[in-house]
Write a structure and sequence with these properties.
Helix content is 77%, strand content 0%. The longest helix has 29 residues. By secondary structure, it is mainly alpha-helical. Helix 6 runs parallel beside helix 17 and helix 12 packs antiparallel against helix 13.
Length: 397
């Protein structure tokens, strides 16, 4: 790959190549310690970075609430009502990225842009709203659709990524994101395969870029094709990669479509843990195991397993048991509080993604990841439509 700046010749591709340490000059221990001391962020810098995220997150919530009100009785009313918080958060994060870069503050404050922490916390809280009993008893077709769709799309994305020479870690992130539930699945996969931050930010950016037009495209196509509400909802829920975008698109398609879309997307969300376990096993036993080396121990497997996935499962179980014991009104109110807290953490995560976004990473990645994700999105649409028609054509809401 061509150089992108001074010293780039000795740096591996940030997104598509593994860091093996090959070709790097040895640095004496004393110099290494000095460099680490210089680069170690101060508590003030971390606090300032977190403060930037919180302020931009508050602005995101403000715009999400007020833009629809400002656009009433204007040509933008319908569009404004459909735009969800990820759009505002990413946009504000990108603006903050530019401003802080111009002020030479972005690198100093970057330790406070805790993307992984915010998303992992949001994913754990997401589990509380997933009632496993409802999924098992009332959404049999959605479970079958989720299993078949995830298997087909994940397999295709993994295969195409391999054919185009993508790094296995990036393949895992893109495959999980496009086949399950976008950024949340990418984060779970990142923990399992120990991906790098720039790979996470890149995968998340692709999710947002492809999810936004889908919000409007899928309801329109459902109308053109004359799909029943249940089929339209299943198609929307199975194909759009973020829960917020699914809600926005389902609302455009109609209340009945929204209900099915939510159930289908929730079912896919519930499979995050399964995929994370499978990826942990695959990378531990196959991808990163050197020939002739002993089989990894249970402790090594546990050390690389993304622990927050267990929090996601635990929250789901606790939420299910709580809703069974509490009265319907109180249970719904308390879950709504948890969901609002989850939204805040996801807002902070999307803001941080915008703040961490790097054009250099895009240039280095080139066209291959975009082609892989775009091709997988098309396959997802086609397979998802077929499964939705097959499994939901007689389904009543």
């Amino acid at each position: 790959m061509a150089e992108t700046g001074a010293g780039a010749a000795n740096e591996p591709n940030a997104l598509t190549e593994s860091r093996t340490g090959a070709g790097r000059a040895e640095v004496p221990p004393s110099e290494t310690e000095a460099l680490q001391a210089v680069s170690r962020p101060t508590a003030g810098a971390v606090a300032a970075g977190i403060a930037v995220v919180i302020v931009l997150g508050a602005l995101t919530r403000y715009f999400e609430t007020h833009v629809p009100r400002w656009s009433v009785d204007t040509p933008f009313q319908r569009v404004a009502k459909s735009i969800e918080f990820p759009v505002y958060a990413i946009a504000l994060g990108l603006i903050g990225n530019v401003v802080l870069t111009e002020l030479a503050l972005r690198d100093r404050l970057s330790a406070g842009f805790r993307t992984e922490f915010f998303i992992k916390t949001g994913v754990v809280l997401l589990g509380a709203s997933i009632n496993l009993k409802i999924l098992v008893t009332a959404a049999g077709p959605s479970i079958l659709q989720a299993l078949l769709l995830i298997t087909a799309v994940f397999g295709f994305t993994w295969w195409l990524g391999g054919r185009l020479g993508l790094d296995d870690k990036l393949r895992a992130l893109l495959s999980s994101a496009v086949s399950i539930c976008g950024v949340s699945a990418a984060i779970a996969a990142a923990g399992a395969v120990q991906a790098r931050r720039e790979q996470i930010a890149y995968a998340a950016s692709l999710v947002i870029v492809f999810a936004l037009p889908s919000i409007f495209l899928l309801p329109w196509l459902a109308g053109v094709l004359g799909l029943p509400d249940a089929v339209a909802g299943a198609w929307i829920g199975g194909n759009i990669d973020t829960t917020a975008a699914v809600a926005a698109s389902g609302a455009i398609a109609g209340e009945k479509a929204l209900q099915i879309a939510t159930i289908v997307k929730t079912t896919q969300n519930a499979l995050i843990g399964v995929v994370a376990i499978a990826l942990t096993a695959y990378f531990t036993l196959r991808v990163e195991r050197t020939p002739g080396a002993a089989r990894p121990s249970a402790r090594q497997f546990w050390e690389r397993f993304p622990k927050f996935v267990l929090g996601f499962v635990a929250a789901s179980i606790i939420g299910t048991l709580y809703l069974q014991s509490a009265d319907k009104k109180s249970g719904a109110a308390h879950i709504a509080i948890v969901n609002d807290l989850r939204t805040w953490f996801l807002i902070f995560a999307f803001v941080s993604i915008g703040l961490e976004f790097s054009l250099r990473g895009l240039r280095e990645a080139g066209w291959r990841p975009v082609v892989v994700f775009g091709s997988a999105a098309v396959v997802n649409l086609a397979v998802g439509l077929g499964l939705s028609v097959l499994l939901f054509h007689n389904f009543t809401v």
